[in-house]
Design a protein that fits this description.
Layout lengths: L5 H8 L3 H15 L17 E2 L4 H6 L4 E2 L3 E6 L5 H11 L12 E6 L6 H10 L9 E4 L4 H19 L1 E7 L3 H6 L6 H22 L2 E6 L1 E4 L7 E4 L2 H7 L2 E7 L4 E7 L8 E7 L2 E4 L3
Parallel strand pairs: 3-7, 3-10, 4-5, 4-6, 6-7
Antiparallel strand pairs: 1-2, 8-9, 10-11, 11-12, 12-13
The chain binds guanosine-5'-triphosphate (GTP) and magnesium ion.
């Protein structure tokens, strides 16, 4: 409940805003006292780290993916976004002393490309037993289902099922196909923002990692070569804590830092995909 803001609670419960504010203030005091921290203590937060299982990528990430942060991986088709999501749904199950978070994953699959067979192959490599038991899979058929799941159901799942990772592969597919045309753009952006905002609230409250993938657009440049950029415009550009771009080349895939408060711009890691998941590219 403390995840709601007064406007949302007021609308849902049919009560006026002032009353909703009062209720939320009391509820928050009970479960989450708001305290400013001395900056020297901030490292106490968000310091749990999740390995990707690929040394070069972990190094690029400054050790791995951190809890309470949102990660976006954008890239063209076949650049390994879905494979990376599969691998993280396995590594999150590893115990902390092996780079995992000892938890389970929620896997939201908007494109229908989840494969339990891939999970099993990757899990064998990391000696994770019964990996599918710790992956909660959801396949929304439209944006309403996606939004309802994120807003209404994720909270209880995270609380009750030891979830430490939320994967959304991809964040944009349903919106792109269901809000076509310029006249729907503002509405589409507003709704993507709403879902992302909820993911942020959940990741902070429960200290979990959020990972989502994004498609790319070709942006024509006058008198130049068209460049590829992540889809979703400004809203997506500012939502994630860290953004990466995946690019296929002959023989390997390049992961590049696109935007991050902490990681060097344009730093890269190289990887390849094998039957048992992502590996470092060994030249
Ligand atoms: P889109 O969702 O289409 O945008 O692409 P994506 O970025 O999600 O790509 P995905 O992660 O599905 O990567 C696809 C690539 O992974 C393929 O081109 C294959 O090279 C590789 N791949 C997938 N499964 C296997 C496998 O079982 N064995 C091997 N060796 N490679 C695989
Ligand atoms: Mg994919």
């Amino acid at each position: 409940m403390v995840l709601f803001n007064p406007e949302e609670l007021s609308e849902r419960a049919g009560i006026d805003i002032e009353r909703a504010e009062r209720i939320l203030r009391i509820a928050r005091r009970l479960v989450r006292p708001v305290k400013a921290l001395q900056a020297s203590h901030i490292t106490e937060y968000g310091k749990e780290v999740l390995t990707t299982g690929v040394k070069g990528i972990d190094e690029l990430l400054g050790g791995g993916l951190r809890t309470s942060e949102l990660y976006e991986f954008a890239g063209e088709f076949g650049s390994g976004k879905t494979q990376l999501c599969h691998q993280l749904a396995v590594t999150v199950q590893l115990p902390v002393n092996r780079g995992g978070l000892g938890g389970s994953a929620v896997y939201i699959d908007t494109e229908g490309t989840f494969s339990s067979e891939r999970i099993v192959h990757i899990a064998e490599r990391f000696s994770v037993k019964e990996p599918l038991e710790s992956i909660l899979y959801f396949r929304p058929i439209n944006v309403v289902e996606l939004e309802d799941f994120v807003v209404e159901e994720l909270n209880a799942l995270i609380r009750d099922k030891g979830v430490r990772l939320i994967v959304i592969d991809s964040i944009i597919a349903l919106y792109r196909s269901q809000f076509k045309g310029i006249e729907w753009l503002a509405r589409r952006q507003q709704r993507i923002n709403y879902v992302l905002d909820w993911l942020k609230r959940l990741s902070t409250l429960y200290d979990i990692v959020v990972v989502y993938t994004n498609q790319v657009l070709t942006q024509p440049v006058p008198f130049g070569v068209a460049i590829k950029i992540p889809a979703g415009g400004n809203i997506l550009a500012h939502a994630a804590t860290h953004r990466f771009f995946l690019r296929k080349t002959r023989g390997h895939i390049i992961m590049e830092v696109l935007d991050s408060p902490r990681l060097p711009y344009k730093a890269t890691a190289l990887f390849v995909i094998k039957n048992d998941g992502l590996h470092d590219y060994e030249g």
